[in-house]
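Posting this for the archive.
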Amino acid sequence: MTNSIGELEKDARCIFVIGSNPTENHPVIGMKIKKNVLYNGAKLIVADARYTDLASIADVYMPHLPGSDVALLNAMINVIISEGLADQKFIEEHTEGYEEMAKVVSKYTPEYAETITGVPAEDIRKAARLYAQSGPATICYAMGLTQHSTGTDNVKSVCNLAMVTGNIGRPGAGVDPLRGQNNVQGACDMGCLPNVYTGYQAVTNEAARAKFEEAWKVKLPDKNGLTLTETINKAHHGEIKALYVMGENPMMSDPDLHHVEEALKNLDFLVVQDIFLTETAQLADVVLPGACFAEKDGTFSNTERRVQRVRKAVNPPGQARADWEILCDLATRMGYPMSYDSAEEIFAEITSLTPSYAGMSYQRLEGKGLQWPCPTPEHPGTAILHKDGNFTRGKGAFSAIEYKAPFEVPDEEYPLVLTTGRSLFHYHTGTMTRRCQALDEHVPEAKLEVHPELAAKLDIADGERVRLSTRRGSIEIKVQLTERLRPDVVFTTFHFAEAAVNWLTQSELLDPVAKIPEYKVSAARIDKI
């Protein structure tokens, strides 16, 4: 997030939510958005194929077809430029590449975008005017925007919209990606990506690499590694022989699970480190029992870049141990002595090597924690990035983005669009929440949301079990009739192994930059059983 969570409750005068369902997936943030709209009069724009909870209180709701985000965003920018609502002063002083971007969006009139997105042209105009004229405006997005073959283009288009109106670097004005899990931000900050060390220092940067080589007394590779999806593909082809999976459940969360299962079984050696025997752990040669969040010390870095202390409350059960202890022992046994006395000592090393964390310490994190960048011990932390239009790179870069259709579009054999998401009552692959009796009793199984118009056409009833198919295979799932989505779109969650929708999603075409699979758009068919 460029800004802070609290600004969504008081500073933002307009909030544009696209590809996110905060009241179910980020309930605290969703509550703050609702309070701002209901009690402070903030304007709300929602773009989603489903009529979400926030859509019910939105000033403008745009039910765009999954995968048509670039066309919708370009059309909003088209309106803003053509009606003289762009912040020309901000554009001239703080950005570059505007002319090329403006030339591309000139053809994306609301009428043209309507043919792609299905959103009425007048609603696009109304949304654009609200966003540009309401005062400080924030865009919130999540995996509904990123999990596409054009996910990077989608995010760049969001940035275009923010910059063309000068909505960046001020309280209530920014771009706020809502991270999917509680410490995703922290994992990325710590270099759990194949192309960077901690603090997003590039593996290919010679100076950065030399710094880590000196600290760790080893020679480090000068080439980027593989993403998870690429790793699974390499395992499938026999190019990777062993895999160490830690706190991840790809046998539920990865696309095209037939492909994943074949890849994992093709390995010579699979190690899984987790707190439960997950679907992935059941295929492992060795399972290492890790400690859960309440059983270890450390830090979490949340979606607003706030680094917070986590304290051990209870001892781990049985043979379970903190992840860092397991990793240190394993490294030592493999010939690289690795020894730390505590999580705090590890954090001290992090701060010595990571400029954005350099001013932090366990003592300074007492209370509310600190938001990075926090470069010195005297620095208070950074609540707002790119303040007053002062971008990290110098000037903000507009991107000229053309709309590209999803990898799969409906046809005669698979006439529907299948999209996926989460439920308020379950979390990710259900490793923890499916073991919570109350939550599992409340939502015990997956449901396929189907519009009544489509159900009537297919002669299927509410609660009926149907066969849902894509080009990857089929699952059986119970139908839930609802008017909250378009008749040509069906939706389900991915928490349930009994009807794991990721057997059906595709892993063939990835976003060319971020290497993210297209979870959110699959051509699908429903058959009566």
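The mean pLDDT is 94. The first strand starts at residue 14 and ends at 18.
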